Amino acid sequence: MRITEWPEDERPRERLLKHGAAALSEAELLAIFLRSGIAGKSAVDLGRELIARFGSLHRLFAATLEEVAAIAGLGPAKYAQLKAVIEMVRRALAEEIGERDALASPREVRDFLQLTLGGRAHEVFVALFLDAQNRLLASEELFRGTLTQTSVYPREVVKTALKHNAAGVIFAHNHPSGVAEPSRADELLTQTLKQALSLVEIKTLDHFIVAGTRTVSFAERGLL
User: Fold this and answer.
1) Residue 189's CB: how many other CB atoms inside 10 A?
2) Which strand (E) or helix (H) includes residue 221?
3) Which of 34, 78, 95, 180 is least enclosed, having the fewest CB within 10 Å?
4) d(CA 108, CA 116)
């Protein structure tokens, strides 16, 4: 049965307009994005299939074109739309961090990092460069490694921070293994970067590890 033939109070779009987006399931939200189903499957059915295939929204967001297009009814156009939506949300969060003290907006920082790093297949190291009021100046992917490690060069980090005239830096990298706990190597790297930046009077404010849906803060753990 097509969604347009469902009772009005069960249709995702009408429910969203009446109760707000938070009232909808992930499959229903995806159905609104997909707009239509295929023969034998409603848009909600397709939404459920996407969640079942990838296991979570953040894994869907990180999926490749080939992985998404493997599901009947989807293709390059839908993939491009999905990536555009994700990027708009990521930029909106960046604007939020750019307009207020990042340390006073930890939820926005974590959400931004989840969209930037969550679900990535390889380890990626990024830095958020902040001004004296802890507002975001720029976000840059500095290094990309293998599934188990990445090479981070303190001199390059310092040079990039100076280029942005940053007063503070927040580091972040992902653990594709799904284990969010900081390793001893992560702790040593953080201390090395902190010392290098302190020589040019730039503060290291935090280092986040993103693993799946978990985000761990070094500052909260007392590791800075």
Assistant:
1) 19
2) helix 218-221
3) 95
4) 12
